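hey m, so remember when u said the tokens were messed up on ur end? i reran from scratch. heres the input so u can diff it against urs
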Amino acid sequence: MKIRAFKQEDLPAIFDIYSRSKLDELKYESMTYTLLSLEDDDKRFSELMESDIYVCHEGDFISGYGAIFNSEIRALFVHPKCRGKGIGKQLLEFLLFSIKGQAILFVARSNESAKHLYHLYGFKVTDTFLTTYNQVPVVAQRMVRPE
């Protein structure tokens, strides 16, 4: 597995990974969510595109991607068939190495598996708040990793 900077031709793979993975982070919520594809989500897509994006790949197959904007990790997604192989950890470590100073990220409060990974890398919950995904409420948390 290698990590490299995003290229425009990676967008179809990123859209595919997002569509296969986004609702997984909300599966423990009490509400029912409908996928809003990344390409149709103006806010999330514009935030992604203003970020530094990196893809994890083996040959031509992209197994995951991550994005940072300043000190914020804005995306960390792994293709469902590639989970459990350390790709998420590898991407997280790469992103953290690229951030100078403290790192922040946002996660659904019920996404315990992601929060467990983030805790292993020194992140702590600093705020809990209500937001929305595709116009449906979701409780989210801000996590910070000190310098």
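this time it looks ok to me. The first strand starts at residue 2 and ends at 5. if urs says something different then somethings off w ur setup not the seq
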